[in-house]
Each structure stands twice: as C-alpha cells, then as structure tokens.
Design goal:
mainly alpha, 180 residues
Length: 180
C-alpha cells in the first residue's frame, strides 16, 4: 500500500464553514466545496454549480487518463470512478455494490473500502490489489507496462485532480465581485 498525505480520522462535515472552521482536504473535495464571497444566495448557487462543474471536469480527465493513456481494465476503471462518485455524493467510504463483471475486482474495492475513498483521492490507494489486477490486464494485452507503474501514474493523476479542485477553491475564496 502506498501512503501519501496525512490521515485525518475526524469526521468532518461538508457544511459551509464559519470563518473559524478549519479548511481541510475533505471539505475542499466534498459536496459543498465552495467558499465564495456570499453576498446573495444566487452567488452561492453559482459557486456551487462551478464547484460541481470543476469536480466533473476533473473526473472526466481522470477517466480519460485511465482509459486512453493507462489502458486500465474497464472493470477497474468503472469501480474507481463509481467509488469516487459515490464518495462525492455521500461523503461515506462505503463501497457501491459491484455488478457481475466487476466482482473479479471486488477484493480491490474491499481493500480500498478499508482505506477509504477519500483517502484514495489523497493517493492512499489499495496498491497491492489494484496493481496486481492491472498488471494481469497488461499481460493479457501483451503490454510491457506494469501494475506498479500504473499505480504510480494513478497517484500522480489523483494529485493533479486534487490540485485543480484546490485551485478552483482558492479562486472562489479569493475572488471578489469587483475582480474582473
């Protein structure tokens, strides 16, 4: 297992923080990951829509990397994306139920469940299971890639995902209505 970042065991909520509330990764990546200058409810809704759009763009970018650049097995790709979407909509780490074709990779999902999908976003992936499954897929395709290199690339993509969400967060937080 590759561990990246720091583990936060506190159960943070996705509610809008007050000025004294600590901002952390869980909040920034969570459902209400916006802190705009809230002059009106309309401004809040606009910022929420932009935060959701940013999340969806990053998810599409991750999906493109998984399928086109990393040649990720379709079931692994579906499980990862399903896990992230589930976490984003519920902020719980309970895994969604796998479909029949995904059951072969269910052990990876269970191991990731123990680590948590939020921690997955931070780069704490169930490397052993995911890398082994992806390694077998590469071998079946006759590729010289390894599951280990795939896992490293996935972590870099997740860090990019986080960076772009954080950058959006800062833009919302530090932009005033007077800023062009």
């Amino acid at each position: 297992m590759i561990l990246v970042g720091s583990l936060n065991t506190a159960q943070d909520t996705a509610a809008q923080p007050t000025s004294s509330t600590k901002e952390d990764n869980r909040h920034i990546l969570g459902v209400l990951s916006v802190r705009p200058p809230l002059k009106t409810f309309g401004t809040f809704l606009d910022a929420l829509v932009k935060a959701t759009d940013t999340w969806n763009e990053q998810l599409l970018s991750l999906e493109a990397w998984l399928s086109k650049k990393a040649y990720t097995h379709p079931s692994i790709r579906i499980l990862i994306l399903k896990g992230l979407k589930h976490w984003r909509s519920t902020e719980t780490d309970y895994p969604p139920q796998p479909t029949q074709p995904e059951l072969i990779y269910h052990q990876s999902t269970l191991e990731q469940f123990d680590i948590g999908w939020f921690n997955f976003l931070l780069g704490w992936i169930a490397k052993h299971c995911w890398a082994l499954a992806q390694d077998a897929h590469y071998k079946s395709l006759g590729k010289r890639h390894t599951g280990q290199s795939w896992a490293k690339g996935l972590i870099v993509e997740l860090w990019t995902f986080n960076w772009n969400i954080w950058e959006h967060q800062n833009t919302c937080k530090h932009t005033t209505e007077d800023t062009p």
